[in-house]
Amino acid sequence: MTDTNTNQTWIILGASSTIAKAFTRSVAEQGAHVILAGRRMDDLKASADDATARGASAATPAIFDARVPDTFQAIIDLASAQSGTINCAVFVGSMPAQDAIDADPTLVDGTIADSFTGPARFLQMLAPVLIERGTGSVVGVGSVAGDRGRVGNYVYGAAKAGFATYLSGLRNALGRHGVHVLTVKPGPVDTVMTQGLGKQPFMTTADAVVQDIRKALQKKRNTLYTKWIWWPVMTIIKLIPEPIFKKMSI
Fold first, then answer.
1. What InterPro entries is this protein classified in (predicted)?
2. For residue 45, is it within any domain?
3. pTM of the full predicted structure?
4. What angle do CA 234, 236, 242 make, to 5 degrees?
5. Cys bridge to 137: 35, 36, 87, 197, which one at CB 3.0-4.6 A?
């Protein structure tokens, strides 16, 4: 992981999510400055107070909406005003049920903006700042759903697939300037987003995902599947021939 001291700034996009809150607690306890970005200012302020109590050198709430690019630059300016290393963790995303999207195709636009195009545009705007500093980390949270289009959530999966491909290119570009980019592909995590899905295989917790992210940052990993079992599972799923895959219900 990057140096863990008060000279670290972490921009946390989607800071109200369950995993983001666990990640915030982790870096706050290491003394980092956290910029908590999201749509719910009351929740962000509460998280900022908690981060300060846990040891963050500073905690700043900021409005961010992946569908409103006008909210992006102010966050980048806040981070740029700090000395030291700038990092960014992206936990933004939305996952409407596929049958809801089938009934209302306008939901496609928001799903893709939340899970792909909004975060990608923000990171593209942040990239020159990271290149100038010549250090830092980007954590982009995708999903195993992006590894192959499945009948139950293919719009969400398409958005996460696009984001993963973007992160791969960003890793190639920023890696030449000393910036590490980690793509995280969780399976089902016990969060608000997954409530109502019923029992899911290999479900994990937000704290376990954060522990895995920290280890992957320390080792400068490119891609992280969490739980690890999803790597062989998804490798097999990607190898299933299309004629057979079309008949499956996964």
1. NAD(P)-bd_dom_sf, SDR_fam
2. yes
3. 0.92
4. 100
5. 87
